């Protein structure tokens, strides 16, 4: 029996609440800056990001990560659709120019001669799960197999310790760490 929805009325003293809400909505969620992504694209770091360990807290268990946009995706299809998107293409175009450095700042201040920023070729880097055309179910199955293999290894190490006479417990039954 309710009527139409009403807008919240901001009275004369509530303007500060309205402004705070507007600023918060404008900012949105914070993503990595271009210079941070540029460090992620360096030789030693990018391999680790493309072949991440399985993380249950991330979308797609962390296996479908776009290095250029710093985003996790749920499966191969979502990742491929993202690669075709305008947002990803804009990010690739922005990453083509080399990041701003201290030397460039000094040159702009008059300490040295101007050098035009270099352009570089930027291509989309695909994670191993996307290259292998894995689905989320395949990734979960692989995670389960990895956990079972790790349990077997741990059990074998515990058996070897018991055979050698080493135990994690002292004479009183307390566990040593």
List keywords for this structure.
single chain, 177 residues, mainly alpha, two-stranded antiparallel ribbon, 49% helix
Structure report:
The protein is an all-alpha fold. It has eight helices and two strands. A two-stranded antiparallel ribbon has the order 1-2. The protein is extended and about 70 Å long. The mean pLDDT is 80.
Shape: extended
The fraction of residues assigned to DSSP E strands is under 5%
What class, by secondary structure content? mainly alpha
Q: What ranges have pLDDT less than 50 throughout 5 or more consecutive residues?
A: none
Give the N-terminus to C-terminus distance in angstroms: 65 Å
Helix/strand order, N-terminal first: HHHEEHHHHH
SS summary, helix count: 8
**Rounded mean pLDDT score:** 80
In terms of quaternary structure, what is this?
Answer: single chain
The major β-sheet equals: 2 strands, antiparallel
Number of E-state strands: 2
Share of helix, binned: 40-55%
Backbone CA Rg: 26 Å
- Largest sheet, spatial ordering of strands: 1-2
